[in-house]
Write a structure and sequence with these properties.
By secondary structure, the chain is α+β, with helices and mostly antiparallel strands. The chain has 2 domains: about 250 residues, 3-Layer(aba) Sandwich (Aminopeptidase), CATH 3.40.630; about 120 residues, Alpha-Beta Plaits, CATH 3.30.70.360. The chain is built from 10 helices and 21 strands. The strands form 6 sheets. Strands 3-4-8-5-9-19 form a 6-stranded mixed sheet, sandwiched between helices. Its cofactor is Zn(2+).
Length: about 375
């Protein structure tokens, strides 16, 4: 039965194509029909994202847990990528691992529970996780629609390891102006690129001193444009010391920080090594998730043990950003990452284990019963 539902979900494309626009609509319609048929007491609340796109908050009166399942996948990377291919226990297809396999685990866990336990379970199906995270941004603005009874969010995607939070992330643009000089007399100029690298080294060291249970704060230089600025355009001149550089930094945040404080942190580091003009712009800021407490972790791990599984904890300092952290930070509700084993996220050979989908379902059922 799990395989049949996964097959249906995979065969409904739900990726964002620049030419065709969003194809989440059909998937969204299927989910609504499925829940109206199988969870008749649940209310389906639609939250508009933009034209043709919406989140679905599907809940009983007082849920204690909400499974947060994103609707979209990345673009297909081969023909027939939305067709399930079975090889022994592995199910191949676009979105099998990320995250339609885990969605199936969560749905069947709720389906197989007695009615009194079903009343503990809600679902959030949301748009745009793989792109601009518009779905979760809108959900944060509508966080008052999350019932006060909710104790946990669960993102049902991992590799059968338990994630219990993630660092926040920020995108910071830095522009540094140097001083042009002839390359044969470079000491007469100020190389904007060299200044940037000096700042980067010091910034990395200083940020790593900010550490919590989620890991260390870190900065990575992800892009850089260097050259001579002529009439507002960057040019490469072989005989000139570059007087302009612009760069993008990705910052992973282990604790909350305001835009202004992060901006000031960058500015102060630049001022220590550079006397000419510069600018810093925090273009995006996502807060880290709420810390999941030791008691909550123990409850999940004990639940898994009761159905025969020793679950390993994943290191939040090594994981990517999970946008469920946005609603977690806004509401103060902790979240878990847990889903079936598989490999190849976003790739042509993405797969999920059918047995692990069923095992994940059993863990969810026990955890829900123990809440």
């Amino acid at each position: 039965m799990e395989k049949e539902l996964l097959k249906k979900l995979i065969e409904i494309p739900s990726y964002l194509d620049k030419k065709r626009g969003s194809s989440e609509r059909r998937y969204c319609d299927f989910i609504q029909k499925f829940f109206r048929k199988n969870f008749k007491k649940y209310k389906i609340k639609k939250i508009q994202i933009e034209r043709g796109r919406e989140n679905l908050l599907i809940i009983p009166k007082k849920p204690k847990i909400i499974f947060c399942c994103h609707l979209d996948t990345v673009l297909p990377s081969k023909k027939n990528h939305t067709k399930i291919i079975t090889k022994e226990n592995k199910l191949y297809g676009l979105g099998t691992k990320d995250m339609k396999g885990g969605t199936v685990s969560a749905i069947f866990a709720a389906l197989e529970l007695p009615k009194r336990l079903q009343d503990k379970v809600g679902f959030l199906f949301y748009c745009d996780e793989e792109h601009g995270q518009k779905g979760m941004e809108v959900m944060v603005k509508n966080s008052s629609r999350i019932p006060k009874s909710v104790r946990y969010f669960v993102s049902p995607e991992s590799s059968f390891k338990l994630g219990y939070g993630c660092r926040g992330c920020a995108k910071v643009k830095v522009i540094i102006y140097g001083k042009r000089a002839h390359a044969s007399r470079s000491q007469q100029g100020i190389n904007a690129g060299e200044v940037l690298f000096d700042v980067y080294k010091k910034l990395k060291d200083n940020l790593q001193s900010i550490e919590t249970r989620l890991g260390k704060t870190s900065a990575t230089l992800v892009s850089m444009n260097l050259g001579v600025l002529v009439n507002g355009k960057i040019q490469t001149q072989n005989n000139s010391v570059p007087d302009y550089t612009e760069a993008i930094f990705s910052v992973r945040l282990s604790k909350n920080i305001s835009r202004q404080k992060l901006k000031t942190l960058f500015e102060n580091e630049i001022k220590k090594t550079h006397k000419l003009s510069f600018s810093v712009n925090v273009q995006q800021l996502r807060s880290p998730s709420v810390m999941t407490g030791e008691k909550d972790l123990k409850l999940f791990l004990e639940s898994a043990k009761q159905v025969g599984f020793e679950i390993e904890l994943s290191d939040p300092g090594l994981s990517g950003y999970n946008d469920v952290a946005m609603i977690s930070a806004k509401t103060g509700i902790p979240f878990f990452n847990f889903g079936p084993y598989g490999e190849g996220n976003h790739g042509a050979d993405e797969w999920v284990s059918l047995q692990s989908i069923k095992d994940t379902k059993q863990v969810f059922k026990k955890f829900i019963g123990n809440i």
